[in-house]
């Protein structure tokens, strides 16, 4: 493909802006891509042809960032160089910025492989210019309806956009994802046999109660969470496909997630059984890249959680886990994880309603906070913060959490102080923010951790152990 003068101007402009931003201490994840796309709307197409070893795309509602970073950890362990939008800037501007950063001034790329997290709504624009070699689709749940619209629309949009020649890596346990394989030639499925939390009945919110092929109510023999499980349509025969990559013997031990695929055992330093799917997606893609299981296992074991994805901070008062919450199903799984520690809990929940969070916060009423009400005895305090602090406090009150245990504090630093005040050694602390509160809270935690001289000591130990 011939590169036009627009391409060169766009590339050089993007690289100069990137250098300027880095010089001022800013990340520069989207502005270079925004300017470059304004100059040359086809710049992604021109940049993508350099990746002769392939382009891996990861999309879906939950788990994109964690899956991408798990796979990145495996790729690094195997010695592969690759372009990567690691900061999670997954719109066209962020993806373009990542590709520009990996491209030299002469137009040649520094790596021949690209790993790109792509927002579901961005998939059509992305696939107009880029044909991914391999596409991972994690799951589909309702998320920011004011931005995405109804879930069915998002699913149809993603499905129609994926090129026929792309190898699809699909979550077999989600019927909304599994349906993609019914009309696609190259497909590989991953799934879970069962977890200790799997049940034959479920009261959780399910996005796929009906068969996506014929509309008949789906019959489940096992639920993992949400609509993920072992399903079958009695109307047309659509069913959960047999996964080539199947997680078995799943269990938690001392904060580690352990599972087996075939004869190979894997260990993941992440809480929550929902993270098992992220690991399986990464394992499946890595095997397709001919990376052996020894390197895959080392990459998973040495993985350090990214910003706000069950990320751990170490303060004098004790460890704090920070994790993003953004939709009902994801929040339900975080609640399940918190209750699963079987220790007294102190929780800080931060809800904003800015554009990146979703203006409509009615989704909070679809979260199963009643589980917190049912286990109120183990909840010592809940701090509510953010622009909609009163809304989340009201929701928790109706869920059965005692008003005496609810505290409203709009100032983030003060909210963190209240979380830590009089905290005992036995108590476990979680901070659960929406998007626009995640990084402000994270900066406070990082600053306090650094001042305390406890910077990631345990995290470094895990990484050194994995490399040994």
From TrEMBL:
<keyword id="KW-0961">Cell wall biogenesis/degradation</keyword>
<dbReference type="InterPro" id="IPR013564">
    <property type="entry name" value="MurT_C"/>
</dbReference>
<dbReference type="Pfam" id="PF08245">
    <property type="entry name" value="Mur_ligase_M"/>
</dbReference>
<keyword id="KW-0067">ATP-binding</keyword>
<dbReference type="GO" id="GO:0009252">
    <property type="term" value="P:peptidoglycan biosynthetic process"/>
</dbReference>
<dbReference type="InterPro" id="IPR036565">
    <property type="entry name" value="Mur-like_cat_sf"/>
</dbReference>
<feature type="active site">
    <location>
        <position position="360"/>
    </location>
</feature>
<dbReference type="GO" id="GO:0004326">
    <property type="term" value="F:tetrahydrofolylpolyglutamate synthase activity"/>
</dbReference>
<keyword id="KW-0133">Cell shape</keyword>
<comment type="subunit">
    <text>Forms a heterodimer with GatD.</text>
</comment>
<feature type="binding site">
    <location>
        <position position="211"/>
    </location>
    <ligand>
        <name>Zn(2+)</name>
    </ligand>
</feature>
<comment type="function">
    <text>The lipid II isoglutaminyl synthase complex catalyzes the formation of alpha-D-isoglutamine in the cell wall lipid II stem peptide. The MurT subunit catalyzes the ATP-dependent amidation of D-glutamate residue of lipid II, converting it to an isoglutamine residue.</text>
</comment>
<feature type="domain" description="Mur ligase central">
    <location>
        <begin position="58"/>
        <end position="198"/>
    </location>
</feature>
<keyword id="KW-0547">Nucleotide-binding</keyword>
<dbReference type="GO" id="GO:0005524">
    <property type="term" value="F:ATP binding"/>
</dbReference>
<feature type="domain" description="Lipid II isoglutaminyl synthase (glutamine-hydrolyzing) subunit MurT C-terminal">
    <location>
        <begin position="324"/>
        <end position="437"/>
    </location>
</feature>
<keyword id="KW-0436">Ligase</keyword>
<comment type="pathway">
    <text>Cell wall biogenesis; peptidoglycan biosynthesis.</text>
</comment>
<protein>
    <recommendedName>
        <fullName>Lipid II isoglutaminyl synthase (glutamine-hydrolyzing) subunit MurT</fullName>
        <ecNumber>6.3.5.13</ecNumber>
    </recommendedName>
</protein>
<dbReference type="GO" id="GO:0140282">
    <property type="term" value="F:carbon-nitrogen ligase activity on lipid II"/>
</dbReference>
<dbReference type="InterPro" id="IPR043703">
    <property type="entry name" value="Lipid_II_synth_MurT"/>
</dbReference>
<dbReference type="InterPro" id="IPR018109">
    <property type="entry name" value="Folylpolyglutamate_synth_CS"/>
</dbReference>
<keyword id="KW-0479">Metal-binding</keyword>
<feature type="binding site">
    <location>
        <position position="233"/>
    </location>
    <ligand>
        <name>Zn(2+)</name>
    </ligand>
</feature>
<comment type="similarity">
    <text>Belongs to the MurCDEF family. MurT subfamily.</text>
</comment>
<keyword id="KW-0862">Zinc</keyword>
<dbReference type="Pfam" id="PF08353">
    <property type="entry name" value="MurT_C"/>
</dbReference>
<keyword id="KW-0573">Peptidoglycan synthesis</keyword>
<feature type="binding site">
    <location>
        <position position="214"/>
    </location>
    <ligand>
        <name>Zn(2+)</name>
    </ligand>
</feature>
<dbReference type="GO" id="GO:0008270">
    <property type="term" value="F:zinc ion binding"/>
</dbReference>
<feature type="binding site">
    <location>
        <position position="236"/>
    </location>
    <ligand>
        <name>Zn(2+)</name>
    </ligand>
</feature>
<dbReference type="GO" id="GO:0008360">
    <property type="term" value="P:regulation of cell shape"/>
</dbReference>
<dbReference type="InterPro" id="IPR013221">
    <property type="entry name" value="Mur_ligase_cen"/>
</dbReference>
<dbReference type="GO" id="GO:0071555">
    <property type="term" value="P:cell wall organization"/>
</dbReference>
């Amino acid at each position: 493909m011939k590169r036009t003068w627009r391409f060169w101007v766009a590339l050089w402009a993007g690289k100069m802006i990137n250098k300027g931003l880095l010089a001022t201490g800013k990340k520069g994840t989207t502005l270079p891509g925004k300017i470059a796309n304004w100059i040359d709307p086809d710049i992604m197409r021109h940049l993508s042809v350099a990746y002769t070893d392939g382009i891996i795309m990861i999309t879906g509602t939950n788990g994109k960032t964690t899956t991408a970073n798990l796979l990145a950890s495996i790729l690094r362990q195997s010695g592969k160089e690759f372009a990567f939008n690691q900061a999670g800037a997954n719109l066209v501007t962020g993806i373009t910025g990542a590709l520009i950063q990996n491209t030299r001034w002469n137009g040649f790329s520094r790596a021949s492989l690209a790993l790109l997290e792509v927002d579901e709504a961005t998939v059509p624009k992305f696939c107009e210019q880029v044909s991914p070699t391999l596409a991972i689709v994690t799951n589909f749940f309702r998320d920011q309806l004011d931005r995405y619209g109804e879930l069915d629309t998002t699913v149809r949009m993603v499905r129609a956009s994926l090129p026929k020649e792309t190898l699809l890596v699909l979550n077999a346990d989600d019927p909304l994802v599994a349906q993609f394989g019914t009309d696609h030639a190259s497909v590989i499925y991953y799934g879970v046999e069962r977890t200790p939390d799997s049940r034959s009945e479920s009261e959780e919110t399910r996005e796929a109660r009906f068969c996506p092929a014929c509309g008949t109510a789906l019959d489940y023999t096992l639920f993992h969470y949400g609509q993920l499980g072992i399903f079958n349509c009695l109307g047309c025969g659509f069913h959960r496909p047999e996964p080539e990559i199947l997680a078995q013997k799943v269990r938690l031990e001392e904060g580690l997630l352990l599972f087996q695929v075939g004869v190979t055992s894997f260990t993941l330093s992440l809480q929550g059984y929902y993270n098992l799917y992220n690991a399986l997606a990464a394992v499946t893609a890595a095997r397709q890249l001919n990376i052996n299981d020894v390197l895959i296992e080392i990459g998973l074991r040495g993985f350090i959680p990214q910003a706000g994805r069950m990320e751990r901070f170490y303060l004098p008062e004790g460890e704090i886990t920070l994790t993003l919450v953004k939709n009902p199903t994801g929040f339900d799984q975080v609640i399940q994880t918190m209750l699963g520690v079987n220790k007294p809990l102190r929780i800080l929940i931060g809800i904003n309603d800015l554009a990146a969070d979703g203006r409509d916060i009615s989704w909070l009423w679809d979260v199963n906070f009643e589980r917190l009400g049912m286990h109120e005895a183990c909840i010592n305090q809940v701090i509510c913060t953010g622009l909609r602090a009163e809304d989340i406090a009201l929701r928790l009150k109706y869920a059965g959490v005692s008003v005496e245990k609810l505290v409203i504090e709009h100032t983030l630093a003060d909210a963190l102080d209240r979380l830590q005040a009089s905290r005992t050694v036995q108590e476990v602390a979680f901070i659960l923010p929406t998007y626009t509160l995640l990084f402000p809270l994270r900066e406070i935690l990082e600053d306090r951790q650094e001042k305390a001289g406890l910077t990631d000591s345990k995290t470094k130990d895990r990484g050194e152990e994995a490399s040994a």
